[in-house]
Queue: 2 jobs
Job 1
Amino acid sequence: MSNPKVSIDELSISTIRLLSIDMVQQANSGHPGLPLGCAPMAYVLWSRFLRFNPQDPKWPNRDRFVLSAGHGSALLYSLLHLYGYDLSLEDLKQFRQLGSRTPGHPESHITPGVEVTTGPLGQGFANGVGMAMSEAHLAALYNKEGQAPVQDHYTYVLVSDGDLMEGIASESASLAGHLQLGKMIYLYDDNKISLDGPTSFAYTENAMQRFESYYWHTQHVQDGNSLDEIENAIKVAQAVKDRPSIIAVRTIIGFGSPLAGTSKAHGSPLGPENVKATKSFYGFDPEKSFQVPQEVYDHLREPGKKGAELQKQWDADFEKYAQNNKDEAAMFRLSFDGKLPDGWDKDLPTYTPADGELATRQASGKALDVIKKSVPFMFGGSADLASSNEMDKSGDDSFQYLHPERSNIWFGVREHAMGGAMNGIAHHGGLRTYGGTFLTFSDYMRGAIRLTALAESTATFVFTHDSIGLGEDGPTHQPIEQVLALRSIPNIVVLRPADANESTEAWRIALTTPKSPVVLVFSRQKLPILDQSKLGSAREGVAKGAYILSEADGGEPQLILIATGSEVKLAMGAQAELQKAGTPTRVVSFPSWELFEHQDKAYREKVLPPTLKKRLAIEAGSPIGWHKYTTDEGGIIAMNRFGASGPAEELFEKFGFTVENVVKRAQGVLAGHPEDEGQEEEKKQLVAKGSEGAV
């Protein structure tokens, strides 16, 4: 395979390119164009700049590399294999196959060396911002003058035209520029082609001027095959300390193939004959696949060996650091191991009915204040709603360029960027992250939440103003379907606490749930502290997802009232009225479907006995899904329409969230007609509107 006329640089780049297109061709699925165009810039970055140790992909001080253009995953897998990660040639041959370690888009929990799960465009862009924020914050927390730094690395991200078109990228770029994240360098694959055709059909802005307005440092590399130009641009970017950098590298999509420069090279295999022609172009045997010359292996394993030596030196430096900074070193190790300080939760607040009413958002804020004191590596904030989310709003603890040691992030009105950055923070390691906004705006960040769940990562999403109870802002801000939408995401835990004690326990679960994001949903309005002295215990009950809060008086229960959040107080009030009328009634507080489903059958049937079919669920949100817990003989009080603008008390009255209506509906359930006349009439009206196209 050796050719004395071909430099090792050229041979290595050709090998990266051809491995990638072989993967795509063998799978008969994938994106060959990006690897063919971007291999030179990836080679320069990985061989001459990136600090990594393939033997320890989680070394805390490694440089981070994120492929935001996740459709080009074949490029990343080729790099990981060739540079010595635990990804074999056989793994590459299984690209996009069921159960393989080389899925269609990069997944961090599957493939060693993949920093974060990417694919939907723009997400990796935002993840990189979160990683750079993490490095800046951790460096400020731990690095000491006169000692080798504990945290000192770059975040590199490869982005495409599609990434820059997505709104999340604009949000994230704006935040990164404001924070002056100088150790963040993005390589932009500027090839003027997207999946459907030339970008000129939809994208003619001057992207670099846009980034300059975001306070980024920008550069252009006119020849994406010029290794020297790319290297020089990265060196210049590294010298810029007070701005993030983006380098627009003009590439040719599918370079070296007969389809070069066209959208046909973007999202489909090249085809057998075109693959052969491409291999011939690069001087490789067109009849062979997955060819790796030994001299390429030898050459590309060197950066990883240097990285192992860098880590060895870092380990030695850290031991010296630990001798002088025992507490900081212990906390650093603890945080990167994903653990919490001993006794972190001993001061979490508890409440009694004598404490009076408290909105669950307020209880959340009190719990978070305690947690931030006991867990020094909490790092999060709000999307310009801290005063509403009950998070730190003074600005005195605001993470900024001049104060990177501070832990409260002002994300601004950038919900999607907040979710993406949180995902990057979580994947970076060493920090626990959280972010807050109104529940209705979870729609703006659902893509990021979904990827956090998919990646089996941990983050705490805090959503307040959880129902029509937010009142006068009206239906544009009143969530109806959002809790259901979040519950529908696999590998996620959603908690809607009923009072201050359940809110405290929800935070305990958020900090101790491994491999799943946790969503906390809190009320705007004040709620009574539930009396748990007789039977129910928030500490045990919330952890199980649902529990018997108040048992029936006067014998076996004839009816179960099931409720979450602010509606639990209605269930308690209705229980009292029903029992006065001679109906023994059980109240079940049900903060989390997911946690309840994780309990064994015996516990679930203890809370909801199969023989007790008279049940009524109450939640000021979508009714979808509650039928599983109410049975055919049960009923649901929920929202089948958008809310309205007005005081919360009037809205609850209008939509039937009152003790009186719960009692009425419960009596209907007992009598065998769980849906009252008003509901039937409302359904008829909705059907009629639907036939007119008005729903």
Job 2
Amino acid sequence: MTPQKGFVRRILVEPPSLNNNTADAQRLEKCLLNELSTDYIRIPLPVLKKLPSNLRSWEFKAKAVLFKDRCSWILVDLLNPLSNRSVLGAAVDIGTTRIVVSLIDLETGFEIGQKGFDNPQAAIGPDVLARIHYSNQKLGQKSGQKLDQKFSQTMDQNTGLEELNSLVIDSVNFNISALCKEHGFQKEDVYLFTGAGNTAMTHLFLGIEPIEIIKEPYIPCVNIPDTQPSKNLALDINENGVAFLFPNIGSYFGGDLIAGILFSDLDQKQAPCIMVDVGTNAEIVVGNSDWLIACAGAAGPALEGGGSKMGMTAKPGVIDQVWIDPDSRDLMIHTIDEKKPVGICGSGMIDLAASLFLSKRIDIRGKFSRQACGKNLFEKDGINYFIIVDKNHSGTGENICLSQVDLNSLTSSKAAMYTILEVIVKNTAGLEFEDLEKFYIAGTFGSFINPVSAISIGMLPDIPLKTFEVLGNSSLGGAMELLKNPDAFERIIKIRQSITYIELNVNQEFMNMFSGAKFFPHTDSSRFPSLQNIS
């Protein structure tokens, strides 16, 4: 990207004269319309207030900070062209569990730095469902106090929503400021804010009531939020700054997925490709430049700790890789930051299941083999447990185990994942897995997944490994792309309009297909030719 094509443009306004006494604002407007090849631009009042003196002191040269909304371009601010102050943007992945902020130099498009932190809303509820319920609480309901009628009317507001909104806004403000200081900038240098999150997180970030999202017929308040003055959202950046939240498709397909499509260029591919983002839900998009089909389904709880007593999110000491020693056939592990093991995360769970299956410690039904597991298997309260790390080597002082209950949960998750893929690729799009040019794996979880392990347990299709491409944090990537390239705005709107969303819960074939996928790797072994030597 060249600077002149970005959101910061250096301009020269025609000076006034006796022969040209057009108002300063109109001459500025004419200059910007020509520069942007557009028909309309909004010039806000704060820019107009000092426009005459600024233009003359700058000899009618200026540095224009611009952005877009659905209707027009916006002149965010007009700056001294000789100023050496940087003009920055903040791109934010508003994740349910973790939030990541990236600082972008708007003139060069270069990323200055990133900062990730836990979403503080997790203290109120670990998932969006709990947070949405909490957001609907009134002050009187929370306190249990009896309020007189006048005071009750005054305080009749969604204080739960306000609390959740303040938590996320305050944490984002703090970390944007900290990131700026860390790299020698000021928060006032940030003019543009782009954020992408799921539908619920977008509502909570905007301070909009989200309760209808979880009530039949599951209707969001807004699908396409307008670009807002940053002050409207209490964002502590430049006073003239503006903020844009990526649009969502519906209750279960949010702006983070549209950001992912933008980041992967899925909307510009000629051959069909697929993007999968696995978290608490599995969100999937398949298509190309001509068509896009999307769906979402519950396929991730066991992979993020939500459906497993031993699963957890990634942090130091968590097992993230498991493999079979080729000589001893023992299971080997790796932990994050190489600390003593304290548990296992999603990528580690998939590796573990694959290693157990390939070493025949579990059978095709996902049941432990007592003979193959040996002394690592024990029974408690009628449930089998497999010891991954014994208490003498763990960071908790206790055995780190995989129970049959945990394994059953993982089996259901991998079966759901494969079935969702099969429904959308084969039944809906009319393709075969082999027709896919690229298989993009998105999200934090997707950054660490080993496709070989996922194929081995029948979670992902058995296609050439070169087809798979890890995108990393595609939600953040899409938010960053918009700051770097104004043309991305039109693509975002077009992507949203072109997606056909299907509901899996009304798909009659889903449960029949799901039953067949609850085996390792599948009841139909021909689907996984690379594993046919596994009996």
